[in-house]
């Protein structure tokens, strides 16, 4: 006769088999894994625009070819703009560094330039720009020594020599004589020009007023700030 223990064992075995059979049914297939979307790799096709300084130089007036260093340029062969004296176009100087032209303001004039060239890095590209002093008078008609003066500023654009602009005096004299330009000083992004202006009591030989004007680039041209009187 089977004991209670023997009667329970077949039931336990049957229950275990049923549970095992239910747990081991046909497996459901796992959902497919979608591959991650691929992002395009490579540089942005939009190229950055050129710097304002580079654009301004490229748009300047070309007056000839330029060496890698402007200090090696033959300045005797370079034409200069006459705009500082209201003379349209370019002028070429003779062996005496003089030229004749017609000013829209003063009529026939004699234009002169200095043999000295001032160099400095205005563009901040480790290459020098140049400023050359120029002046004009009425060619002896009224014995005036000078009626206008300025600096013409040159730079390089590729292999070209270009005119960056003309600098003129900004501080007005109290006397009838025009303000004189003494010297330019180059720094990155600006040219500081020292000016000598006449007070009412000054003799023609000796202006006593001193001022400075800082010139910077505005768009494609050189533009002056307000002159600062220092004495």
Report on this model:
This protein has 231 residues and is mainly beta. The protein has one domain. 12% of the residues lie in helices and 39% in strands. The chain has helices at residues 4-23, 52-58, and strands at residues 61-65, 80-81, 90-91, 98-103, 107-120, 129-137, 148-157, 160-168, 180-187, 190-197, 209-218, 221-224, 228-229. The strands form three sheets. It has a six-stranded antiparallel sheet with strand order 1-8-7-6-5-4. Strands 9, 10, 11, 12 and 13 form a five-stranded antiparallel sheet that branches. 25% of the residues are buried.
Write the layout of secondary structure elements.
Layout: H1 4-23, H2 52-58, E1 61-65, E2 80-81, E3 90-91, E4 98-103, E5 107-120, E6 129-137, E7 148-157, E8 160-168, E9 180-187, E10 190-197, E11 209-218, E12 221-224, E13 228-229
Antiparallel strand pairs: 1-8, 2-3, 4-5, 5-6, 6-7, 7-8, 9-10, 10-11, 11-12, 11-13
Outline of this structure?
The protein is mainly β.
Which key phrases capture this entry?
231 residues; mainly beta; five-stranded antiparallel sheet; 13 strands
Main sheet: strands, sense, barrel: 6 strands, antiparallel
Task: Report the average pLDDT across residues.
Answer: 82
Q: What is the number of helical segments per DSSP (H or I, 4+ residues)? A: 2
What percent of residues adopt helix (DSSP H or I)? 10-25%
> Which regions are unreliable across 5 or more consecutive residues at pLDDT < 50?
1-53
The chain-level structural class is mainly beta
**What is the general shape?**
globular
Rg over CA atoms: 41 Å
Which strand order spans the largest sheet, edge to edge or round the barrel? 1-8-7-6-5-4
The succession of helices and strands, N to C, reads HHEEEEEEEEEEEEE
Question: What fraction of the residues are assigned to beta strands by DSSP?
Answer: 35-45%
Number of domains: 1
Question: What's the count of strands?
Answer: 13
Distance, first to last CA: 134 Å
């Amino acid at each position: 006769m089977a004991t209670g223990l023997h009667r329970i064992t077949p039931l336990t075995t049957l229950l275990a088999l049923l549970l095992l059979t239910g747990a081991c049914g046909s497996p459901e297939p796992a959902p497919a894994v979608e591959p991650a979307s691929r992002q395009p790799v490579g540089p942005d096709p939009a190229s950055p625009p050129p710097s304002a300084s580079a654009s301004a130089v490229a748009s300047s007036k070309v007056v000839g070819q330029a060496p890698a260093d402007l200090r090696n340029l033959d300045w005797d062969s370079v034409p200069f703009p006459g705009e500082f004296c209201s003379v349209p176009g370019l002028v070429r100087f003779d062996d005496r560094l003089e030229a004749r032209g017609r000013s829209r303001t003063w009529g026939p004039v004699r234009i002169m330039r200095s043999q000295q060239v001032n160099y400095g890095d205005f563009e901040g590209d480790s290459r020098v720009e140049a400023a050359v002093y120029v002046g004009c008078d009425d060619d002896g008609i009224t014995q005036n020594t000078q009626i206008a003066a300025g600096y013409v500023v040159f730079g390089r654009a590729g292999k070209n020599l270009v005119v960056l602009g003309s600098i003129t005096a900004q501080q007005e004299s109290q006397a009838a004589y025009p303000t004189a330009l003494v010297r330019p000083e180059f720094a990155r992004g600006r040219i500081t020009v020292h000016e000598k202006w006449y007070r009412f009591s000054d003799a023609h030989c000796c202006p006593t007023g001193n001022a400075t004007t800082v010139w910077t680039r505005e768009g494609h041209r050189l533009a002056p700030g307000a002159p600062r009187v220092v004495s």
